[in-house]
Amino acid sequence: MERTTSQKRPWLAALLGALATGFGHLYLRRWRRAVGWFATLFAVTYVLVDPAAIEALAAGDPVDPLSVAPTLIVGGASVVDAYVVARAQNAIAQATAATGETRSTDSRAETETGNGVEGTVDSCPNCGKDVDPELDFCHWCTAELSAGAEAGSGAAENGGSER
């Protein structure tokens, strides 16, 4: 079975980050990083931006860009970070998919020769992410994991024939 990895679009992460600080990171499922950028934006705005400029901006009045520059700089840095993180995440996913195919082939060979443990699944055959061996399903994509192992063990118990 061919694995599919979730590729994120860096331009979409950057666009979402430009709309609201932290949204690009939420799209990338980087929860703590999104909260960190959001908290940084508020802290920098509170400490470095004049409250009158914030009130004028909220009222829709024209504001000197230099008076809100710290907020714009943090927002811009968040956009760049979301783009870079998305690119890095895609590169890691591609490298993992390439090595994961080799690893799954090796583990299949170990199970067939008796060196591996029968019925254990290290990663989900559907999404390729690591799974908890105590669960019967992938907690990432909810694909059922034990169907192949149970079918294989059921055939072995019935003398190699299925009923």
Automatic annotation (TrEMBL):
**Protein keywords:** Membrane, Transmembrane, Transmembrane helix
Please list where the region (Disordered) is annotated. Answer: 96-121
Which Pfam family, any one of them, does this sequence belong to? DUF7575
Keyword Cell inner membrane listed? The answer is no
Where are its TM segments located? 12-28, 35-54, 66-86
Residues covered by the DUF7575 domain: 121-145
Name under which the protein is recorded = Zinc ribbon domain-containing protein
What organism does this protein naturally occur in?
Answer: Halorubrum salipaludis
